[in-house]
């Protein structure tokens, strides 16, 4: 370093330290310890913001009101369960107890090592704040504790909620989607599940909703999905972004709708109804009519700049929210059926495919499709853990929209994920992998040769004879898999979510055993001294623990495992609708 430059750096460090101590003396820091000091430098808004008082830049000319009228009759989703045998009941209760124990252990770890932080680090015993430092795990896990009847733990968590200020946050950019599904969804669902008894839940939800509502304050009232909230609070200029992920745009509707229903203020519903209108307007003019691409240029309101389509990450819950919004609105808005049916018809044509499997299973995987410059579709035959939600969604859609032919599609999608779990040495599906699509689903007879050809197709630079067996061995590829593009398991819920939904729809008890196998495999590979951790490689029998436990472990994964082993009327799908973070909201009856 040049001496002058060195002195400059030293001065900067001293100045920074001075500012930092000033900031502590002035007591500007919030109750929650910031994880990254740099995110808490002076100049940031540290106090509560009265979001209701921030002047509206672009007022709506007329508010879209919640539909009124008597909810229409929506066909029943759940199977009519008969009387359970004693033996089945004993087995089920044993499994239920095991899930509850794992939840309690994870909760204790959070309470002891990461209280009021976003998440615990389950190997090192530290903590992490990646969702704004507003106790994400606590808020996300509240309704699970209510469902499990953990009254003491629930009471403690509820009391702590008073200390959390939802009108301000540690990060400069708010991820509107994550904040909505985790925090807003968690608060609203706990309010609903406890019968509206705890007004603090709705008050906090409204405070947060009023903050998020300002992200919609742009010329066409379309939201800024990664939002500079301080600029929002300080009345800076705002416009819709050039690139948004379709899932982040489309998965706000349930939470905002429920907030309007509970507060009687239509403005939140108005905000998301305008987004749905955009999806409707553009549904048939994208590169694959019926579907929307992963990325959308919201500023230009262009749905054609991107030509990639998938039910996997970045698009997933966009689709999931159409049938769910239909249910939450009591079937009174016909738009959501149209959006769903158009999408599912296209998905059955282009996204779902039958993979080659050693035992010729009649299953489906939901892949990714790109349209190239010559307007040809190219199917990328990937199996993403995130896309495993699709089986449950298609099952629910089959019931509520009376599409019985889709029930078998749902069953095959669920079985696709079960197959991916069963195929791995750890018994857990990887984050993403590649398989071999059978171009003619009727002609999908296994041969080792076809598998090897598929493996080599992924690697055009290798010469065949020498390499294929070595590649299979080095990559630990199970028969049928041609590549494992992301070997991690992040404690994700989507597979058990769909197994749970299919069980509630069909009453097929094989699914209980599938769920139990999954649960045991996950516990065997992810347990740490204090809790459970994401793992580096599901093809490893003793996978490395990567010291991460996102809030969805207790909010979603363990909740769905608990519910599948509960009595079928505990959070019935005919009375509740789950947001994409597994937070049940009450359906109109
Ligand atoms: C898209 O086109 C289909 C088939 O013509 C039609 O049934 C559907 O209503 C259209 N969807 C929208 C949102 O306009
Ligand atoms: C029961 O569920 C399993 C797992 O999804 C499936 O393979 C099987 O076909 C189902 N049985 C019936 C009768 O639907």
Describe this entry's structure for a reader.
The chain is mainly alpha-helical. It has a single domain (44-79, 92-586), classed as Alpha/alpha barrel (Glycosyltransferase). It is 46% helix and 8% strand. It is built from 19 helices and 16 strands. Strands 7-10-11 form a three-stranded antiparallel sheet, with no helix packed on it. Strand 10 and strand 11 form a beta hairpin. The protein is globular. The structure holds 2-acetamido-2-deoxy-beta-D-glucopyranose (2 copies). One of its GO terms (biological process) is ERAD pathway.
Summarize the structure.
The chain is built from 19 helices and 16 strands. The protein has 589 residues and is mainly α. One 2-acetamido-2-deoxy-beta-D-glucopyranose binds at residues 411, 414-415, 508, 510-511, 514.
Q: What structural category do the secondary elements indicate?
A: mainly alpha
Number of domains: 1
CATH topology: the name is Glycosyltransferase
Helix content: 40-55%
Enumerate how many helices there are, as a single number: 19
Straight-line N-to-C gap: 71 Å
Inertia-based shape: globular
Over all CA atoms, what is the radius of gyration?
24 Å
CATH class: Mainly Alpha
- Order of strands, widest sheet: 7-10-11
Bound molecules: 2-acetamido-2-deoxy-beta-D-glucopyranose
State the major sheet. Answer: 3 strands, antiparallel
Task: Detail the poorly predicted runs.
Answer: 1-42
Strand fraction equals 5-15%
For the secondary structure, the number of strands is 16
CATH architecture: Alpha/alpha barrel
The mean pLDDT is: 92
């Amino acid at each position: 370093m040049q001496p002058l430059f060195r002195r400059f750096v030293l001065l900067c460090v001293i100045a920074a330290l001075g500012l930092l101590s000033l900031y502590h003396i002035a007591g500007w820091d919030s109750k929650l310890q910031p994880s990254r000091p740099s995110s808490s430098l002076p100049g940031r808004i540290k106090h509560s913001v009265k979001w209701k008082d921030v002047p509206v830049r672009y007022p709506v000319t007329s508010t879209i009101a919640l539909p009124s009228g008597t909810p229409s009759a929506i066909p029943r989703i759940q199977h009519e369960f008969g009387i359970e045998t004693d033996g089945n009941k004993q087995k089920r209760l044993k499994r239920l107890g095991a899930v509850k124990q794992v939840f309690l252990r994870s909760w204790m770890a959070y309470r002891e090592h990461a209280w009021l932080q976003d998440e615990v680090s389950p190997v090192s015993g530290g903590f992490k704040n990646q969702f704004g430092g507003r106790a994400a795990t606590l808020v996300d896990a509240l309704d699970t504790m209510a469902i499990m009847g953990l009254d003491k733990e629930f009471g403690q968590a509820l009391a702590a909620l008073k200390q959390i200020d939802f009108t301000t946050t540690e990060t400069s950019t708010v991820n509107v989607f994550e904040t909505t599904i985790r925090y807003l969804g968690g608060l609203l669902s706990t309010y609903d599940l406890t019968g509206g008894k705890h007004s603090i839940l709705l008050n906090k939800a409204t405070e947060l909703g009023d903050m998020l509502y300002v992200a919609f304050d742009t010329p066409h009232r379309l939201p800024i999905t990664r939002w500079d909230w301080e600029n929002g609070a300080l009345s800076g200029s705002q416009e819709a972004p050039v690139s948004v992920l379709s899932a982040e745009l489309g998965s706000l509707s349930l939470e905002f709708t429920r907030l309007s229903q509970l507060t009687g203020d239509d403005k939140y519903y108005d905000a998301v109804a305008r987004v749905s209108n955009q999806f409707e307007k553009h549904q048939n003019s994208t590169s694959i009519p019926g579907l929307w691409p992963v990325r959308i240029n919201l500023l230009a309101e262009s749905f054609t700049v991107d030509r990639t389509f998938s039910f996997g990450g970045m698009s997933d819950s966009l689709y999931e929210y159409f049938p769910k919004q239909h249910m939450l609105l009591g079937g009174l808005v016909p738009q959501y059926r149209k959006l769903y049916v158009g999408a599912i018809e296209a998905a059955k044509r282009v996204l779902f495919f039958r993979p080659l499997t050693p035992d010729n299973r009649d299953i489906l995987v939901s892949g990714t499709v790109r349209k190239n410059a010559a307007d040809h579709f190219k199917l990328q035959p990937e199996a993403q853990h995130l896309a495993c939600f699709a089986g449950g969604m298609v099952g629910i859609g089959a019931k509520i929209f009376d599409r019985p032919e889709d029930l078998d599609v749902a069953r095959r999608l669920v079985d696709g994920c079960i197959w991916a779990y069963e195929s791995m040495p750890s018994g857990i599906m990887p984050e993403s992998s590649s398989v071999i699509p059978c171009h003619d689903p009727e002609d999908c007879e296994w041969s080792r040769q076809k598998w090897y050809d598929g493996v080599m197709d992924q690697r055009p630079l290798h010469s065949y004879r020498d390499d294929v067996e070595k590649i299979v061995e080095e990559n630990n590829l199970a028969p049928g898999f041609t590549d494992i593009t992301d070997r991690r398991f992040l404690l994700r819920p989507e597979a058990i979510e769909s197994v749970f939904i299919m069980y509630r729809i069909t009453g097929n008890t094989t699914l209980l055993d599938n769920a139990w196998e999954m649960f045991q495999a996950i516990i065997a590979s992810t347990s740490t001294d204090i809790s459970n951790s994401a793992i580096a490689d599901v093809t490893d029998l003793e996978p490395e623990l990567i010291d991460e436990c996102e809030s969805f472990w207790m909010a979603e994964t363990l909740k769905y495992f608990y519910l599948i082993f509960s009595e079928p009327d505990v959070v019935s799908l005919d009375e509740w609708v789950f947001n994409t973070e597994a937070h049940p909201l009450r359906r109109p009856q």
